[in-house]
Design a protein that fits this description.
Layout (H helix, E strand, L loop, with lengths): L11 H7 L21 H6 L9 H14 L6 E5 L1 H11 L5 E5 L10 H5 L6 E4 L5 H10 L5 E4 L20 H16 L1
Parallel strand pairs: 1-2, 2-3, 3-4
Protein name: Alpha/beta hydrolase
GO molecular function, one term: hydrolase activity
InterPro entries: AB_hydrolase_fold
């Protein structure tokens, strides 16, 4: 998410690993020093080029995952602006399922909903309360199935909805929705 880095996934990736998923979290070129760590990619770049400029980072991560397991399933997962970028990434193909946490029309001069209309894989969206209508609008455009939206009772922005330190009243419920979707699409 904006001003963030792969530290957001410090408690999330191990849980996905326990569920049997290999994970790759990346510091994208648009980000910052949240979560008590430095975004190495953004720091090396020395400036924030904007959200859309991070698309090559997602494409490189997807290519790396596909090369590592050519016949395997690759799921794209994004938080906030990277959730928005995950829609055009999935629309390009090579993604088995999409999970978007607090997606929105964050990409100046680009229609995320237009990209969502080209997504043919299963999709899961969730968001903090108050962001649900935007997430629903994007999910509605997806052509793949199943399409699932989790509407939290208690939430947080982005993937941090799954972090008990950021969402103490709702993380367990959010994880249950994610697990259910992953069981449905990835076995």
């Amino acid at each position: 998410m904006a001003g963030s880095n792969l530290g957001e996934y410090a408690p999330i990736a191990p849980e996905l690993n326990r569920m049997g998923f290999a994970t790759l979290a990346v510091d994208q070129r648009s980000g910052g020093d949240g979560w008590g760590r430095r975004n190495e990619t953004a720091a090396r770049l020395g400036r924030d080029p904007g959200y859309r400029a991070a698309m090559p980072d997602l494409q490189a991560a997807l290519a790396w995952a596909r090369a590592r397991d050519p016949g395997g399933r690759v799921l794209a997962w994004g938080s906030s602006y990277s959730a928005a970028l995950a829609f055009p990434l999935a629309a390009m193909g090579g993604v088995s399922a999409l999970l978007a946490f607090s997606p929105g029309e964050y990409l100046q001069g680009f229609s995320v909903r237009g990209a969502a209309a080209r997504v043919e894989c299963p999709a899961f969206v969730t968001s903090d309360r108050g962001e649900e209508a935007e997430a629903a609008r994007l999910l509605e455009a997806v052509r793949g199935a199943p399409r699932r939206q989790f509407r939290p009772v208690a939430g947080a922005h982005g993937s941090s909805i799954l972090r008990s330190d950021r969402n103490p009243r709702g993380a367990a419920q959010a994880w249950a929705a994610v697990r259910s979707f992953l069981d449905e699409v990835a076995g």
